[in-house]
Specification:
Blueprint lengths: L1 H20 L3 H21 L3 H24 L14 H21 L14 H9 L5 H22 L4
C-alpha cells in the first residue's frame, strides 16, 4: 500500500505541475482529470472510501466535464494565456505558502496508529442520504439546476448564424 500511495502521490504532483505548465487548454484539462484521479487513488490507499468516491464523482465527474465543455466553447485553445502580469507575485505567494507548509510538516511530530482501519462508511452514509428522510430530492434538484445552467451557458455563448 505504501508503494501505491507514493506512486499516486508522485503522479498527482507531476500532473498538477503539468496542468500549470501546459499551454494547450485541452491537455491541461486532461492532466487535471489525471490529478483528480490520482488523489482519489490516494484516498483509497488511506482507507477513505467515501472521500475517494466523492472525489471521483464531484471532481472527475462534474468539474472536469464542465471544464472540458467550457474549453470547447472557447475560440483559442492552443495559445493559452500569453500576457500574465501576475506571474511573479503568484510565484512569490505560492513559494511562501509552500515554505510554511513544509516547515509545519517537518516540525510536527506525527504519530502512526497501529490500529486497523475502520469499517467502510459508504453504505452507512448512503442509507442516511438516500432514504425516505434523506436528501435525494435536493440532490435531484441540484442536478436539474446544473443542467439548466449548462444549457443556458451554451445558449448564451453560441454564435449567431
Amino acid at each position: 500500500m505504501q508503494i501505491a500511495f507514493w506512486a499516486l502521490s508522485i503522479l498527482a504532483a507531476v500532473s498538477a505541475v503539468g496542468v500549470i505548465m501546459q499551454k494547450n487548454l485541452v491537455h491541461a484539462a486532461l492532466l487535471l482529470i489525471l490529478c483528480f484521479g490520482a488523489v482519489a487513488g490516494i484516498f483509497v490507499t488511506l482507507s477513505a472510501d467515501f472521500l475517494a468516491v466523492a472525489q471521483l464523482v464531484i471532481n472527475v465527474g462534474a468539474v472536469a466535464i464542465l471544464l472540458i465543455m467550457a474549453i470547447m466553447l472557447t475560440r483559442s485553445v492552443t495559445s493559452g494565456s500569453p500576457f500574465n502580469k501576475l506571474c511573479l507575485p503568484a510565484l512569490a505567494v505560492t513559494s511562501l505558502l509552500a515554505a510554511i507548509v513544509i516547515v509545519i510538516v517537518i516540525s510536527t511530530s506525527w504519530t502512526i496508529s497501529s490500529a486497523l482501519p475502520a469499517e467502510p462508511t459508504t453504505s452507512y452514509l448512503a442509507d442516511i442520504l438516500f432514504n425516505n428522510e434523506g436528501f435525494i430530492l435536493l440532490i435531484q434538484l441540484v442536478a436539474i439546476l446544473v443542467l439548466a445552467v449548462a444549457i443556458g451557458a451554451i445558449t448564451l455563448l453560441r454564435e449567431e448564424d
